[in-house]
Amino acid sequence: MNVGILAVQGDYEAHAQALERLGVTPVLVKHARQLPQVQGLVLPGGESTTCLKFLNRDGLGLAIGAAVRGGMPVLGTCAGAILLAARVENPPQDSLGLLDATVRRNAYGRQLDSFIASGDFLSQPMEMVFIRAPQFDALGPDVEVLGHCRGRPVFVRQKNVMAGAFHPELSKNGRVHQLLLDAIRARSS
Fold first, then answer.
1. Arch. (CATH architecture) of 3-188
2. Cβ atoms of residues 27 and 6 within 8 Å
3. DSSP string covering 160-185
4. Catalytic amino acids?
5. What is the C-alpha separation between 110 and 185, in angstroms, rounded?
6. Which residues are CB-neighbours of 73 under 8 A, at least 6 positions away?
7. What sign does the CA torsion over 70, 134, 56, 50 have?
8. Per-residue pLDDT of the chain (189 residues; tens, 9 = 90+)
9. How far is CA 22 from the centre of its chain?
10. Is-contact 23 48, C-beta < 8 A?
11. Does residue 17 sit in helix, strand or coil?
């Protein structure tokens, strides 16, 4: 199984380690030509406006959009969730528009307001790390909520598109990454 991690900006190394703990050697994706080599993709946290500049530089964003619309499973965390959302606020910005959701950037506060909390993911407790995290303000009718924290949705899925407001790669719990691997396996069978 080849799982790609967008490696243009952000903490892609922590996602690589999380996938390696699950027995997968990830492919660090920096160019559109690498996408045909992977069966699924992680969009890590980082700074979404900076990441957009890299995505627009050589057509990588267009290639990701086409692959995901074609059914490739994708997981976006924190800034990756912002990139996936159809609508972005605080301030408004462009995105890949692959998830029928409105997200508000930095909704949980600035860097100093970062926190670790216990939430639920797939109806089980899970540690969640929030760093300048986005908030899901509106979800389309086909978007299902798979995780909550402090009474708010923090992990959602729409078909092959999964997005979390928190950083699962900073926890030793591999359930979020396993969900991506399960989606890849299901698509391959």
1. 3-Layer(aba) Sandwich (3.40)
2. no
3. TEEEESS-GGGSS--HHHHHHHHHHH
4. 78, 167, 169
5. 37
6. 39, 40, 41, 160, 161, 162, 180, 183, 184, 187
7. negative
8. 899 999 998 889 999 999 999 999 999 999 999 999 999 999 999 889 898 999 998 899 999 999 999 999 999 999 999 999 999 999 999 999 999 999 999 888 777 778 999 999 999 999 999 999 999 999 999 999 999 999 999 999 999 999 999 999 999 899 999 999 999 999 988
9. 18
10. no
11. helix
Would you kindly state where each structural domain of the chain is located, as residue ranges? 3-188
Q: What is the pTM of this model?
A: 0.96
* Cα dihedral 24, 46, 56, 87 in deg (nearest 10): 100
Question: Which tokens go with 78?
Answer: 């924190």
Cα distances (angstroms) measured from residue 144 to each of 7, 11, 33, 61, 162: 28, 26, 32, 25, 10
Neighbouring residues of 64: CB distance < 8 A, sequence distance ≥ 6? 6, 35, 41, 43, 55, 74, 96
2: Cβ contacts below 8 Å, ≥ 6 apart: 27, 37, 38, 39
